[in-house]
Amino acid sequence: MKKGIIIGGGIAGLTAAIAMEQAGIDFTVYEAAPELKPYGAGIWMAPNAMQVFDKLGVKQAVKNAGIELEKVDITDENLNLIHGLNLKKIKAKFGSSIVAVHRARLQQVLYSFVNPDKVILNKALVSLEEKDGKVVLHFADETIIEADFVIGADGVNSRVRQQIMPEIHLRYSGQTCWRGLVTHTLPDQWKNATLELWGNQLRFGLAEMADEQIYWFAVKTSPENGVDETKDIKSYLKEEFKDFKGPVQELIEATPHFMIRRTDLHDLPGAKKWHQSKICLIGDAAHAATPNLGQGGAQAVEDAYTLVQELHLSQTPEYAFDSFQKKRYNKVKRIIFGSYWIGIVAHWKYFKGIRNFFLRNTPSFIEESQLNSIYRIDD
Ligand SMILES: Cc1cc2nc3c(=O)[nH]c(=O)nc-3n(C[C@H](O)[C@H](O)[C@H](O)COP(=O)(O)OP(=O)(O)OC[C@H]3O[C@@H](n4cnc5c(N)ncnc54)[C@H](O)[C@@H]3O)c2cc1C
Asked: Which residue lies with its CA nearest to atom 19 of ligand 1?
């Protein structure tokens, strides 16, 4: 196989880099950021991602960087259980539970498994074109580099995607999210657990990641592109979530202002084809999902592994890209769809009693089959 360039050193790009190094495929990663230091938030790495990490020999390092969770509880504002998920059973089945980890630590772990000479930082792609059987890439520092194939792993606002599929646009979910990170001691019952409280068009979730670092998110139904009208965002959030019991108020209060960040939640359901000739998109660049299933990063990891397997087996990148998409497309579509609708249902203003009744009484065989379809990876 020839020389490839990976644009983006996030979860997808670094996982692809580890897999390519192990498969003996020549590559370089170009990352726009001057250092690999993503926003200080947490991320849940689901069992499907952990199985891929296991195949790549990085699972233990990821586990060591975070906390393996034992349960997920979804409750109403008053902490009445709506749905509980026992992750010990999941771990027994898939070899790993969900790991809650600081994004920066995850990134550092993945980076530590790649030859650092192969990751060039502070190098933002501006445009790319195909010429004489090569891909020609133009960077912000005015350098031009050629490659035999390109993997666009440059995230939800992908420059690679904008170049090859300008007609594909993000969809706003109708919800905005504030994420916070705080050092705090949680009551024992919420250690090794994710707690998510569903209220009236509001949601609050939290989990410990490691060393008493708590990651929380607060989601509200809101118009797109809203801005915080107050500098005192903590008071605003405390007021919005005043009816929420448990550690919600104390977590918001204890979080420094600069550790709270607002993000509109989008997905990308529209891309029917993730590749064009010698250029292929993976992760959020191809198919961002809303975070409601905690699967965007996991799907990026699955993509990276599957794509590199196909590159390893195929004579041409074009063939590899095609069979990669055939293997991944249906699962990813299901995740985008499911995740979007969980967000809608979680924020229902009406019929909450009916929703909660069905969630409380979901037969275990239905839940198991849904989780299987998400957490099982194709070998
Ligand atoms: C609020 C929220 C919570 C989430 N929670 C979870 C969760 O719990 N579990 C989960 O699995 N997923 C979660 N996700 C989704 C997850 O964050 C993404 O799916 C994941 O980060 C995608 O990885 P990626 O590598 O494709 O993109 P990214 O992680 O965005 O990485 C893209 C990289 O490309 C670089 N880049 C961008 N443009 C250029 C350019 N022009 N040139 C060079 N480099 C460039 C960026 O700097 C970045 O490093 C969440 C998302 C949100 C918004």
From this structure: 296
